[in-house]
């Protein structure tokens, strides 16, 4: 049994939360019966697009495949053990996008998606990525792109991806600076205007379903105005779950 360390406040609330979970129906059903296993995989297609001052930048695109292997049991305290699986991305490193997250382990238990990394020899830092019963999402999300301090919406919406039509849990954050003046949802700060939207999807029975980030940045000063538009989209295209 490996030693585990719950990162954040959940480590102090495990017993109380487990008791409450047993009584409360899930906020987002369809995840509680999920199970991972060695050989489980997900394939994601991604595309990155940009426009600078009206000129289209070269697009980037590719496929990232995530596979699970080598299960480990992590001890999280009295009567609390969690099975995690080593997570590998056999995608050619030259083709893997730099912004892809670097989690080393994934696990799911009672509708809660966990991720972990080895923080010391034999000790693992475990975090909750998504809890389907409460709607809790990791402050930075699975992709690590949420700010952790801005308001987010967590809702269930219909979605269509290449191999199924279903409802997805959509986590959305609007990018802004609360200390700057706001006009029409755009933040104004020292000659700058930025408007970005970030989304993550979680699919019942499948897990992490995709991510997108899109927006516009305008920089003005010295008689010049530069306009940058960018969009990144990641979509689940295949899985054996």
Strand-helix topology:
Layout: E1 2-6, H1 14-23, E2 41-52, E3 55-56, E4 60-75, E5 81-88, E6 105-109, E7 112-120, E8 123-131, E9 152-161, E10 164-175, E11 181-183, E12 186-189, E13 192-203, E14 207-221, E15 224-239
Parallel strand pairs: 1-4, 1-8
Antiparallel strand pairs: 2-3, 2-4, 2-15, 4-5, 5-6, 6-7, 7-8, 9-10, 10-13, 11-12, 12-13, 13-14, 14-15
Question: What would your notes on this structure say?
Answer:
The protein is mainly beta and 241 residues long. The protein has one domain. It contains one helix and 15 strands. It has one helix spanning 14-23; strands spanning 2-6, 41-52, 55-56, 60-75, 81-88, 105-109, 112-120, 123-131, 152-161, 164-175, 181-183, 186-189, 192-203, 207-221, 224-239. A six-stranded mixed β-barrel has the order 1-4-5-6-7-8. The radius of gyration is 20 Å and the shape is globular. The model is unreliable at 8-12 (pLDDT under 50).
What would a concise description of this structure say?
Helix content is 4%, strand content 57%. It has 241 residues and is mostly beta strands.
How many angstroms does the end-to-end distance come to? 26 Å
Q: Describe the largest sheet.
A: 6 strands, mixed, barrel
Percent of sequence in beta strands: over 45%
Order of H and E elements: EHEEEEEEEEEEEEEE
Helix share of residues?
Answer: under 10%
- The number of strands is 15
Poorly predicted ranges: 8-12
Overall form: globular
Q: How many helical elements?
A: 1
Class derived from helix and strand content = mainly beta
Summed over residues and divided by their number, the pLDDT gives a mean of 81
Please give the order of strands in the largest beta sheet: 1-4-5-6-7-8
Measured on Cα atoms, how large is the radius of gyration? 20 Å
Quaternary arrangement of the chains shown? single chain
Structural domain count: 1
